[in-house]
Amino acid sequence: MTSSVNNEKKKDTALCPLCGKPNLCAMAANPKATECWCESVVFPEELLAQVPDDVVRKTCICQNCLEQFQESTK
Ligand SMILES: [Zn+2]
């Protein structure tokens, strides 16, 4: 049994730090999740550089922003 007391102070790890939309990270939605699409992709350093220091590598960039970045670097 897990307590849900801490849920009200939920961090914004479910929101993309770049566009503010849901990043659909499985781990943000469920801390017990061990797999997420974000584990199977590589986030380019240039893209990570756009994420504020305090959330980088804690909060997922959404798939949309990743794809947009990849499009723009083609
Ligand atoms: Zn995004």
Short description:
This protein is mostly helical and 74 residues long. The protein is built from three helices and no strands.
Helical segment count: 3
Weakly predicted, low-confidence segments: 3-9
Structural class: mainly alpha
Q: What is the typical, i.e. mean, pLDDT? A: 83
What does this structure look like?
This protein is mainly alpha-helical. The chain has one domain. 24% of the residues lie in helices and 0% in strands. It has three helices and no strands. The N and C termini lie far apart (48 Å). The relative contact order is 0.23. The chain binds zinc ion. Zinc ion binds next to helix 3.
Features:
single chain, 74 residues, mainly alpha, 3 helices, binds zinc ion
Give a topology summary.
Blueprint: H1 26-29, H2 45-48, H3 63-72
Bound molecules: zinc ion.
